[in-house]
């Protein structure tokens, strides 16, 4: 029997979505939770294991410590924002259960393994990048010095970095357990909410990796890599058929791949196998997807696309190596509207080259696109990304803290002539200008009525306005602090 293993997406800030597959680990404007898909695969390969997703199930650290009395091995998925709290609790757990083995996985320990092991003696080892088989090897008794892709301290206290593990192959992806089976075993799918998806929903992957080179994107640069590996369409369709039978109350399935439809032939082939199932599903999409592919998706039950437009400024798109143009984005969006595909558009303020003018360009671009819903994020330079290296080299990182005390995103990059408080202020102006248009406001309310989601819309609106107020206070405080500094400087020079 393998070590009895608990896979943990840990408690953190209230409403924090960090250790799952969220693109921007943070506390959301509106309470949202993505699934910890990464943890399902090794959890499914180890008999007697359990996947514990604390945030959506509102499980506190005290409860986690109590649950751990029945386990021999803890695998914790940490995040950049959650690292401080996670490592402190690892120390508590080790003190409570001295014999338990603890492994950390996730971006921070991949990019800074020495830092992780030196700061947190409670960690027995960390897994770099894809960790599925490294974790399974250890739980099945393989010595650390023989396991690829791990870093640990040897008996003398010296840090050892074993050679990297080869990336998971397409064949191995097909052989892995289905994420949905682990959800059925360990999670309550009604606890997961994303405002623009039907509730309840389920998220899963059909591929791994992303060949795109976007400089800011966390996952391809830290965990999954740029090599695009796909499950067979037969395996994906079989999982979807099983999920439909086992989750009759689920309204929507979401393919959370970084680039679900990047290959036309594969997408159309999968759509042909999904069509007979009669499912409602959604996915991520790049604006380079052509009309024929989108048409096949719509006919197979696709309802919504999450699209990373990022910016409406052509130079910024070049700066971040987006591999797309404003013109192509407009054509793609027209195709989606023509087919009746709903779009949730993602935008980021504060990317390299951002100016007050480029922010205005992006706001006007978003209104021209007229997507069903949008999300406006503040650019975060996560360690391990090309964006981080650029911002650090140029001295644009004003502080290492990307979040406030509640885990909310805060601007931490400042360009000449673009104060951080201005970027924060423009996030709210972006939302206001977009959603307070009569057409946009009516559409959101009408969809809530059609989908019988009016109570959810009401709660989301309250949450958003509360956070908006908190952020506005932070912006005012920053402005006052800067004004005081400026006055002090004038007085000193007088």
UniProtKB/TrEMBL annotation:
Protein name: Hopanoid biosynthesis associated radical SAM protein HpnJ
Organism (species): Edaphobacter dinghuensis
Pfam families per record: B12-binding (PF02310), Radical_SAM (PF04055)
Keywords: Iron, Iron-sulfur, Metal-binding, S-adenosyl-L-methionine
Family annotation (PANTHER family): ANAEROBIC MAGNESIUM-PROTOPORPHYRIN IX MONOMETHYL ESTER CYCLASE-RELATED, SLR0320 PROTEIN
Residues in coiled coil: none
Domain Radical SAM core: residue ranges: 196-419
InterPro entries: BchE-like (IPR051198), Cobalamin-bd (IPR006158), Elp3/MiaA/NifB-like_rSAM (IPR006638), Hopanoid_synth-assoc_rSAM_HpnJ (IPR017834), Methyltransferase_Class_B (IPR034466), rSAM (IPR007197), rSAM_horseshoe (IPR023404), rSAM_sf (IPR058240)
Cofactor field: [4Fe-4S] cluster
Domain of life of the organism encoding this protein: Bacteria
SUPFAM superfamilies named in the record: Radical SAM enzymes
């Amino acid at each position: 029997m393998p070590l009895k293993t608990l896979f943990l997406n840990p408690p953190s800030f209230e409403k924090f979505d960090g250790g799952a597959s969220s693109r921007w680990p943070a506390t959301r404007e509106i309470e949202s939770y993505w699934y910890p898909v990464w943890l399902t695969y090794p959890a499914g390969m180890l008999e007697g294991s359990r996947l514990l997703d604390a945030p959506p199930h509102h499980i506190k650290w005290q409860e986690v410590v109590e649950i751990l009395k029945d386990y021999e091995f803890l695998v914790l998925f940490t995040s950049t924002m959650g690292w401080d709290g996670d490592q402190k609790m690892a120390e508590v757990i080790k003190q409570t259960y001295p014999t338990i083995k603890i492994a950390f996985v996730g971006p921070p320990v991949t990019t800074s393994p020495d830092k992780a092991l030196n700061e947190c003696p409670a960690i027995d080892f960390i897994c770099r990048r894809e960790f599925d088989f490294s974790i399974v090897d250890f739980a099945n008794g393989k010595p650390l010095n023989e396991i690829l892709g791990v870093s640990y301290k040897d008996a003398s206290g010296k840090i050892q970095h074993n050679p990297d593990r080869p990336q998971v192959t397409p064949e191995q992806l097909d052989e892995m357990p289905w994420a949905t089976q682990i959800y059925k075993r360990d999670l309550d799918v009604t606890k997961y909410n994303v405002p623009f998806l039907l509730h309840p929903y389920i998220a899963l992957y059909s591929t791994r990796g992303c060949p795109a080179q976007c400089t800011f994107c966390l996952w391809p640069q830290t965990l999954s890599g740029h090599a695009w590996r796909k499950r067979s369409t037969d395996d994906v369709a079989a999982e979807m058929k099983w999920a439909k039978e086992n989750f009759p109350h689920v309204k929507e399935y979401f393919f959370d791949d970084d680039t679900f439809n990047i290959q036309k032939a594969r997408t159309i082939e999968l759509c042909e196998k999904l069509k007979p199932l009669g499912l409602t599903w959604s996915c991520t999409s790049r604006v380079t997807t052509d009309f024929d592919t989108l048409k096949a998706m719509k006919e197979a039950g696709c309802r919504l696309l999450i699209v990373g437009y990022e910016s409406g400024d052509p130079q910024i798109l070049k700066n971040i190596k987006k591999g797309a143009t404003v013109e192509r984005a407009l054509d793609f969006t027209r195709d989606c509207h023509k087919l009746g595909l709903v779009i949730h558009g993602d935008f980021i303020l504060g990317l390299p080259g951002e100016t007050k003018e480029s922010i205005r360009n992006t706001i006007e671009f978003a209104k021209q696109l007229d997507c069903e819903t949008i999300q406006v994020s503040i650019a975060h330079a996560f360690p391990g990304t090309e964006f981080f290296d650029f911002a650090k080299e140029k001295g644009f990182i004003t502080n290492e803290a990307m979040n406030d005390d509640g885990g909310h995103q805060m601007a931490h990059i400042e360009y000449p002539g673009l104060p951080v408080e201005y970027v924060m202020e423009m996030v709210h102006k972006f939302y206001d200008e977009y959603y307070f248009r009569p057409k946009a406001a009516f559409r959101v309310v009408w969809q809530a009525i059609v989908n019988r989601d009016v109570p959810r819309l009401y709660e989301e609106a309250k949450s958003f306005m509360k956070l908006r107020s908190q952020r506005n206070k932070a912006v005012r405080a920053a402005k006052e602090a800067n004004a005081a500094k400026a006055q002090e400087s004038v007085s000193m020079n007088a």
